[in-house]
Amino acid sequence: MAQPGEITPYDLLGGAAALRRLVDRFYDIMASDPQAAAIHAMHAADSTEIRQKFFEFLSGWLGGPSLFIEKYGHPRLRARHLPFRIGDAERDQWLHCMDQALAQTPMEPALRAHLQEAFARTADFMRNV
């Protein structure tokens, strides 16, 4: 949790509006890029709910309001993703979409590099096969 006066990645990104654009871009890429077909198929046809949950999770993960925790409790990322087969290919497809979304979202290069590294570590942690 961010300390009072601390500038967080959430702040550097531009807050809720910028985060919403990043999340929407990520899911738009996942839905349209043939390289992401396998992970897109793991999601419901209507992505409204997952977009909202991802936005809420990332808000707290980036140091902004802890929206996800307030609604659902601890994220338990690995447990929530266990029903899905996540190997190297799925991790790489997810990162492909996120890297594109980050590249298309205005931010300082240092923040982009920090986020890419953090997302890569987290995506690698999510592998379960």
UniProtKB/TrEMBL annotation:
Species of origin: Chitiniphilus purpureus
Protein name in the entry: Group II truncated hemoglobin
Keywords from the UniProt entry: Heme, Iron, Metal-binding, Transport
InterPro entries, sorted: GlbO/GLB3-like (IPR044203), Globin-like_sf (IPR009050), Globin/Proto (IPR012292), Hemoglobin_trunc (IPR001486)
Domain of life: Bacteria
PANTHER family from the UniProt entry: TWO-ON-TWO HEMOGLOBIN-3
UniProt record similarity statement: Belongs to the truncated hemoglobin family. Group II subfamily.
